[in-house]
Amino acid sequence: MNAKTSKSSKAKPASKPAPCVCEQLGPLLADLLQHFGPPDPARRHFETARLEFLKGVRAILDARIEHVSKPRRTAKGEKINVG
Prior knowledge:
51% of the residues lie in helices and 0% in strands. The chain is mainly alpha-helical.
C-alpha cells in the first residue's frame, strides 16, 4: 500500500483587509489647511502671481524659440576685382 501524505487543501476564508489609517485623514487635512492657510485675498494674490510667473516663462520660451528658428546668415565672400 502506498502511503502518500497529502496536505488537506482547505480554503482559508478571505480575511477582511485592515482599515486604511488615512481613511479619514484627507478631509481632516483639507480642513486643517483651510483653517491655517492664507486668507482668501492672499490666496487669490498668490494664484495671480503664479499665473503671471508662468506667462513670463512662456514669453521667455517664445523669444528663445523665435531666436533659434530664424534662418542663419551665412557669411558671404568679399567681392574682389582682379585685373
